[in-house]
Specification:
single chain; alpha/beta; five-stranded mixed β-sheet; two-stranded antiparallel sheet; 12 helices; 7 strands
Length: 298
């Protein structure tokens, strides 16, 4: 989806050509009707500057000023709001689509905020494992199960698997997978901040195959039919209000789940706290501000 252009114009350091004409390089313009500004003499001058400063450049520049005038200063533009200045960091990081590197950095900050005793029942997996599992490259798929086998992940009560697929972040939680698969307490939770995309329905078959292959990698011989019967719940959790906040929501789902998860999880008590009013957008914003204050991602 196309991104709305910034309402700010960034002026870099001024440069000079061989003539006494001052050249200001403008990197971006904010309104669609001003897109042709990029072909004005100032941008052409910037290119000429990179080519070197020969005496004929000044004459060429004067010609360009006549054939490609700059009307940018005549355009009416909105000023920067105080709120935009205050939220500059959130708009550029957490409140935009997160890549896997930034997500991992923030998740490590979230994780380090809990005591070892609190984290004892939880473990999280690499956010790229599921997309790697979906790869057609055999070596890539094998590397996932080598890592899983070393971790013995299902020894924990709750296992978080952040999934980034189709450029969208979701969260899969395995509950009580260390118990027998026919246990009433074993289930999967799929938390999606954009449920209108039906990601859960499209991913569920591959998720069940993934679970079965994990068991095989750990040397367990579970009946495939039991894997197919594991309850797969999709709680109605708080939803994002735009198309870029999914990564921030997944991080906050993890934070809140660790805080709120019961000592003994039971499917009969679903959905527990995982409801549409689980948390407010204001609480999400405060969470993002806290992560920003840690300064891990620059």
């Amino acid at each position: 989806m196309s991104r709305r252009r910034s309402n700010r114009v960034r002026n870099t350091n001024s440069k000079y050509v061989t003539s006494p004409v001052r050249v200001t390089i403008i990197d971006d313009c904010e309104e669609d009707e001003f897109l042709h500004h990029r072909t004005c003499w100032k941008h052409i001058a910037a290119v000429l500057n990179k080519c070197g400063s020969k005496p004929k450049r000044a004459k060429e520049l004067e010609m360009f000023k006549l054939s490609a005038p700059c009307f940018y200063d005549e355009c009416t533009r909105r000023g920067r709001s105080e709120r935009r200045i205050k939220c500059k960091y959130l708009a550029s990081k957490l409140r935009k689509k997160l890549n896997s590197k930034a997500f991992v950095g923030y998740l490590e900050d979230v994780w380090s905020g809990f005591s070892d005793e609190k984290k004892n029942s939880f473990v999280y997996l690499d956010c790229l494992w599921f997309s790697m599992y979906k790869s057609e490259n055999h070596n890539i798929r094998s590397s996932v199960f080598d890592s899983i086998k070393a971790k013995q992940i299902f020894s924990k009560k709750y296992v978080f698997l952040p999934i980034v697929y189709w450029s969208h972040w979701t969260l899969l939680i395995f509950c009580n997978f260390g118990e027998d698969l026919d246990s009433d307490n074993t289930c999967m939770l799929f938390l999606d901040s954009l449920q209108t995309t039906d990601s859960s329905q499209r991913l569920e078959p591959d998720i069940r195959k993934f679970v079965l292959d994990i068991y095989r990698a750990e040397g367990r011989t579970e009946d495939p039919r039991l894997v197919d019967e594991i309850p797969f719940h999709v709680p109605v959790v708080p939803q994002q209000t735009n198309d870029v906040e999914c990564g921030s929501f997944v991080l906050y789902y993890i934070q809140r789940f660790i805080e709120d998860a019961p000592e003994n999880f039971s499917v009969d008590d679903m959905p527990y706290f995982m409801k549409e009013d689980w948390f407010s957008h204001k609480e999400l914003e405060e969470f993002c501000e806290t992560l920003h204050s840690l300064g891990t991602i620059h």
